[in-house]
């Protein structure tokens, strides 16, 4: 650069070297480059007073100085900005290297887990899991299970109906799977269904208007009570304890013949007799039987060729026994102190 005033460029450099922050940058920039009052513009005005032969060189030199000043200040601004960015990061409140706060993770509800466990046992025995509707037609809940309109057994299962004339309802049991399975599969049938059922019961320590059931159906040629006993015993030993024993007593359910009430040896006293089993050594646990020929026929299964067994059980009841819970309401009150114990 041809220097019209050697001092001027040195003075600029000195000025620039003092810049430490944005404020100083702005003041140096304005001092040198401000359009009307900046040093360079002010100097430029001297041009008029110079002899004409010196003017071009002076003008060129001043333009070069302006260009130089602009570039230098631009570079200084970049350095300042970079420093500001780094300061913002290092001084920030967020420490990205800190481990995060753990989110509390929920756990499966004990009834839901038991339901899953039961399904798994049946899947391992080759059963197909059916997901049957909770809002059900009267036909599946009652009629097709050999409980026509006026059948007294309907009273035993006080039902929530949706509308008159009583065609839609909340299922009162999972036995509906028997009808659904026979309608959708041809024998051999091995079906299981679990889920919520509803009855007009009070909500107290031993009753709930909503509870869980599992129902099982097997239909094939030559199925006997022996198959029922064998499958049931295998299941009960797996869900309770390998030493669990069971016994069948005659029982009545409209959709099976013969029907049976099934007891297991008390899981608290191993059959010795205690408060829970009322000193009998046995606990009633489920209903079972050979599928009634009428039920087979109504769902399109040839009862002269096929026979089957079915049984159904309350899952909440299993949970109460398995976990030693005395009040069924605890399962539905969502008290985490209770639920976390599982
Ligand atoms: N559905 C009956 C109830 O809810 C239980 C039951 C009894 C299911 C006998 C069955 C059975 O499959 O064979 O009380």
Polypeptide structure, described:
- The structure is a single chain.
- The chain has 342 residues and is α+β, with helices and mostly antiparallel strands.
- It has two domains: 3-92; 110-339, Bira Bifunctional Protein, Domain 2 (BirA Bifunctional Protein, domain 2), CATH 3.30.930.10.
- The protein has helices at 6-17, 22-33, 39-44, 55-90, 110-124, 138-141, 153-156, 176-184, 225-239, 293-298, 315-323, 336-339; strands spanning 128-129, 135-137, 168-170, 189-198, 210-220, 246-251, 256-265, 282-291, 307-314.
- The strands form two sheets. Strands 1-4-5-9-8-7-6 form a seven-stranded mixed beta sheet, sandwiched between helices. Strands 2-3 form a two-stranded antiparallel sheet.
- A hairpin with a 4-residue loop joins strand 6 (246-251) and strand 7 (256-265).
- Helix 2 (22-33) packs antiparallel against helix 4 (55-90) and helix 5 crosses helix 11 (315-323).
- The longest helix has 36 residues, at 55-90.
- The model has no long low-confidence stretch (mean pLDDT 91).
- The structure holds 3,4-dihydroxyphenylalanine.
């Amino acid at each position: 650069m041809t220097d019209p005033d050697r001092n001027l460029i040195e003075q600029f450099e000195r000025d620039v070297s003092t810049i430490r922050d944005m404020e100083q940058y702005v003041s140096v920039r304005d001092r040198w480059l401000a359009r009307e009052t900046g040093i360079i513009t002010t100097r430029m005005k001297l041009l008029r007073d110079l002899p004409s032969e010196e003017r071009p060189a002076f003008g060129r030199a001043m333009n070069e100085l302006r260009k130089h000043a602009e570039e230098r200040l631009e570079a200084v601004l970049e350095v300042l900005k970079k420093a500001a960015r780094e300061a913002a990061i290092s001084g920030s409140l967020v420490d990205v290297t800190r481990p995060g706060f753990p989110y509390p993770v929920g756990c499966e509800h004990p009834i839901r887990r038991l339901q899953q466990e039961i399904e798994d046992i049946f899947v391992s025995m080759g059963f197909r899991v059916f997901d049957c509707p909770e809002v059900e037609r009267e036909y599946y809940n009652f009629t097709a299970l050999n409980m026509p309109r006026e059948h007294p057994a309907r009273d035993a299962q006080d039902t929530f109906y949706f509308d008159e004339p009583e065609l839609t309802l909340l299922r009162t049991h999972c036995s509906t799977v028997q009808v659904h399975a026979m309608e959708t599969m041809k024998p051999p049938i091995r079906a299981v269904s679990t889920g919520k059922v509803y009855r007009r019961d009070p909500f107290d320590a031993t009753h709930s208007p909503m509870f869980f059931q599992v129902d099982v159906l097997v239909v094939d040629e030559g199925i006997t009570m022996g198959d029922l006993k064998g499958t049931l015993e295998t299941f009960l030993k797996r869900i309770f304890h390998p030493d669990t024993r069971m016994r069948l007593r005659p029982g009545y359910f409209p959709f099976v013949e013969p029907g049976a009430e099934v007891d297991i040896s008390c899981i608290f006293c191993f059959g010795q007799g205690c408060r829970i089993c009322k000193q009998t050594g046995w606990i009633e646990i489920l209903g079972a039987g050979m599928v009634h020929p009428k039920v087979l026929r109504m769902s399109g299964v040839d009862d002269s060729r096929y026979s089957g067994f079915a049984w159904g059980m309350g899952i909440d009841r299993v949970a109460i026994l398995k976990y030693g819970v005395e009040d069924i309401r605890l399962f539905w009150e969502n008290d985490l102190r209770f639920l976390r114990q599982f």
